[in-house]
Amino acid sequence: MSRISLDAGGVTLSALLAEPPGPPRATVLAVHGGGMNAHYFDGRAHPTLSLLTLGAELGYTVLAVDRPGYGASAAALPEGLTLDGQADALRSALDDFAARRPLGAGLFVLAHSYGGKVALTAAARGLHPALLGLDISGCGHRYAAKPASTGTATGFGGGRGLNWGPLGLYPPDTFRLAATAVADVPVCEGAEAARWEERFPAVAAGVRVPVRLTFAEHEGWWRHDPEAISELTGLLAAPRLLVDRQPGAGHNISLGWAARAYHLRAFGFLEECLQPHAAASASAARRPEPYPA
Q1: Residue 272 φ then ψ, to 5°
Q2: What is each CA distance from 99 to 59, 95, 106, in whole angstroms?
C-alpha cells in the first residue's frame, strides 16, 4: 500500500492506494464519511479488516481518497466543499489517476456515511463513463437522529453511540489505532448534511448505475424501517437496487468485526456488476459454443 497525491482541478487530494500484483480487474474508489479520512478503509485493529488489503488480494486496485477538506487539501479547503463541489473534485482526481494507471474493466465506488452522499451526487453528475456501480453503507435519506446532530463527526466526538453502537462490535485497540482515521469535519459538511433529505429526490433520480445500500444492525443515524426503505427505493432510478442488513455491526462497519463480511459482500456485488461487461467482451471475441447434442 502506498500514499499518493491526485490533482483535483488545481487542488491536491491525498489518497491511499493498494494494487494487485498484475493488471487490475477493476478499480474501487473508496469514499470515507464525515469526521474520518481514507484510513477508515485500512482498519489496523485486526488483519481481516482492511478493505485495501482485501481488494488487492482479489485482483482489484483500491483507491481510498481523502475527500476535499481532509488530508492534503485540509489547509487549502478549511471549510470543505459542497456536495456538488466534492463530486466535481473527485471526477477531476479520477481523470488524473486514470491518466497514469489502468482502471481495468471499470470503476466501482464503495462509500460510507457522508461519503455515500458524495458518491450518489457524483454518480448523478456523471462521475466517470466507466462507472460500474455504487456500494454504500451508513447512508439513507431520512434521519433517525435529530437534524441538529447531523453535522457531528463519525469519529470520537459527540454522537458516539450513533457512530459506533455497542463497543463489543469492535476488536480490542480499535479506538487507539483508529485515531489516525479521525479528522475534523469541515464546516460546510454540517450545512450540507442538514439539507440532504430535501436534496435526495433530485440526486436519486439521476443515479443510473446499480446500487447496493447496507444498513448496520445497530445503525442509529438513519431510518431503515420498511416504510423508509420503500420510499428510498422508490426514489432511486438505479437499474438495479439492493438493500442489505449487516448483522453484528455498528455505523462504522469497516472498523468492526463485521468488516470482512461486509467487504466480501461488496466485492460480490462488484462481481455481479462486472458480469455484463465480461459477457459482452466474450461475445465480441468469439462465437458462442453450440449446445451439446
Answers
A1: -65, -35
A2: 20, 6, 14
Dist. CA 48–CA 262, nearest whole Å = 11
Distance CA 283, CA 274 (A): 14
DSSP bridge partners of 104 = none
| Alpha helices (H) along the chain | 51-57, 83-98, 114-124, 160-164, 174-177, 187-194, 196-205, 226-235, 259-285
**Contact between 207 and 236 (Cβ < 8 Å):** yes
Helices 83-98/114-124 angle, 10° precision = 70
How many CB atoms neighbour CB 21 within 10 A?
7
Per-residue pLDDT tens over the stretch 233-275:
999 999 999 999 999 999 999 999 999 999 999 999 999 999 9
Instruction: Show the cell assigned to 224.
Output: 431503515
Which residue is associated with the grid cell 448534511?
A: 193
Largest Cα–Cα distance of the chain, in whole Å? 69
Cell of 280: 459482452
Residues in the chain: 293
| Model pTM score | 0.91
Whose grid coordinates read 458462442? Answer: 288
